[in-house]
Amino acid sequence: MKIVIRTVVFHFACILIFAFLYYYSREQYVYQNDIKNKKHTSLIDYIFLSTTIQAGVGLTDIYPISSYGKMLMIFQQCIMIMTHVFTIYVFN
């Protein structure tokens, strides 16, 4: 049971860490339907983005417009995939 709690805490920590990273590099991201106006985004938008990436769902209304933004999202997806693979081997 400890491994389950650790995994859940790890995922929540990743969501929050990456949400703050996305928020502090918000000039690297833009809303899908608002390229010209660059709508002001809040921290909750980036928490939502980070949650959907960590859950494996994909992108939300925000998408990266630079290589740095893309690499940050890829890094979070790789962490999520490695965690799931590691969890499968631990429980079997």
In short:
The chain contains 3 helices and 2 strands.
How would you characterize this protein structure?
The chain has 92 residues and is mainly α. The chain has one domain (2-91): Helix Hairpins. The chain contains three helices and two strands, in the order αβαβα. The chain has a two-stranded antiparallel sheet with strand order 1-2. α1 runs antiparallel to α3 (67-91). The radius of gyration is 14 Å and the shape is elongated.
Alpha plus pi helix count: 3
| Ends apart, CA distance between termini | 14 Å
Order of helices and strands: HEHEH
What is the fold named in CATH at topology level? Helix Hairpins
List the domain count as a whole number: 1
* Integer average pLDDT: 83
Please indicate the percent range of residues in DSSP E strands (runs of 2 or more): 5-15%
Which shape, going by the Cα principal axes? Answer: elongated
Lateral arrangement of strands in the main beta sheet: 1-2
Give the CATH class.
Answer: Mainly Alpha
CATH architecture level-2 label: Orthogonal Bundle
Short key terms for the protein model shown above:
about 90 residues; mainly alpha; Helix Hairpins; 3 helices; about 65% helix; elongated
Describe how the helices and strands are arranged:
Blueprint: H1 2-24, E1 29-31, H2 43-54, E2 62-64, H3 67-91
Antiparallel strand pairs: 1-2
Helix pairs in contact: 1-2, 1-3
